[in-house]
Design a protein that fits this description.
Layout: H1 2-39, E1 60-62, E2 65-67, H2 72-94, H3 101-122, H4 127-132, H5 135-159, H6 167-191, H7 205-235
Antiparallel strand pairs: 1-2
C-alpha cells in the first residue's frame, strides 16, 4: 500500500510538472509569437488593432483598420497552439484532482476555450470574411475563448484548494478573471455588434481586448510556475 501510494504521488507530481511546463510555454510562446507577427505588420497599433488582425492572411479593411499581416501563419499558429496547450494542461491537472463537479466543469470550459482559439485561427477577421459571412464565426470563436477562459480560471480559483493551493492563488485567479471580464465588457460596449454594417473600431479597442486576453495569459504563466514549484517541493526528500 505504501509503495502504491508513493507511486501515485510521484505520478501526480509528474503531471503537475508537465502541466506547469506546458502552461509556461503557452504563455511565453504567446507573447513571443505576437511580437514577431506584429513586428512585420505595417503600422500595427497595440492600442487600436485587435490581436486577431495579426492572423488575417490578405490585405483588406475592416472597421476602418487596414489589415496586412505578412506573418499571419505565425499568428494563427499562436492562436491554435494556445487553445491546444491550455486543454492539454487542463487534462493533466484534472487527472490529479479529487472527485467533484469542479474538475469536470473546468475541463469542459478548457475545451470551450480550446475550440474558441482553433476557430479564431481558422476563420479570420478579414474583409473577405465580412463579405462572405464567416466573420461571425470568427467573433463566435473569440467570444467562446474569452467567456470559457475567464469562467475556467474562476472555477480553478475556487477549486484549487483540492490541490493544496493557497488562498492567495485563489484570490489571484478571481482577480485575473475580474480583469478579463471587465475588459471584455468595455470592449463589447465600445466596438458594437458584429453585423454587416459594423461601426469603426475605437481608438482603444486593442487595449480592452488585450486586457481580456492577457489576464488569461498571465494566469497561465503564474499557474504554470505554481505547479512547477509545487512539484519540485513535493519531490524533495524530507
Amino acid at each position: 500500500m505504501e509503495s502504491a501510494s508513493f507511486d501515485q504521488l510521484k505520478a501526480t507530481y509528474t503531471y503537475w510538472r508537465i502541466a506547469g511546463a506546458v502552461l509556461v510555454a503557452a504563455a511565453l510562446g504567446w507573447f513571443l509569437l505576437e511580437l514577431i507577427a506584429a513586428a512585420k505588420f505595417p503600422a500595427y497599433s497595440f492600442a487600436r488593432n485587435y490581436i486577431s488582425d495579426l492572423g488575417v492572411p490578405e490585405l483588406g479593411t475592416v472597421q476602418g483598420r487596414t489589415l496586412n499581416s505578412p506573418l499571419s501563419l505565425v499568428a494563427n499558429f499562436m492562436f491554435v497552439s494556445q487553445g491546444v496547450l491550455f486543454l492539454l494542461a487542463a487534462v493533466l491537472v484534472v487527472r490529479t484532482a479529487t472527485a467533484g463537479v469542479g474538475r469536470w466543469l473546468f475541463l469542459l470550459l478548457a475545451l470551450g476555450y480550446a475550440i474558441g482559439y482553433v476557430v479564431i485561427g481558422t476563420y479570420h477577421g478579414s474583409e473577405r470574411a465580412v463579405a462572405n459571412g464567416t466573420f461571425k464565426l470568427h467573433v463566435l470563436g473569440g467570444s467562446l475563448a474569452f467567456v470559457c477562459g475567464n469562467l475556467a480560471i474562476i472555477v480553478a480559483g475556487l477549486s484549487a484548494h483540492r490541490l493544496g493551493a493557497s488562498p492567495a492563488y485563489r484570490n489571484f485567479s478571481l482577480g485575473a478573471s475580474a480583469l478579463g471580464i471587465a475588459s471584455l465588457a468595455i470592449l463589447m460596449a465600445s466596438s458594437g455588434s458584429a453585423t454587416d454594417t459594423m461601426p469603426p473600431s475605437g481608438p482603444w479597442d486593442g487595449i480592452w481586448e488585450r486586457g481580456g486576453c492577457y489576464a488569461l495569459i498571465l494566469w497561465e504563466l503564474v499557474t504554470g510556475v505554481v505547479l512547477l514549484k509545487a512539484a519540485q517541493k513535493s519531490l524533495q526528500p524530507r
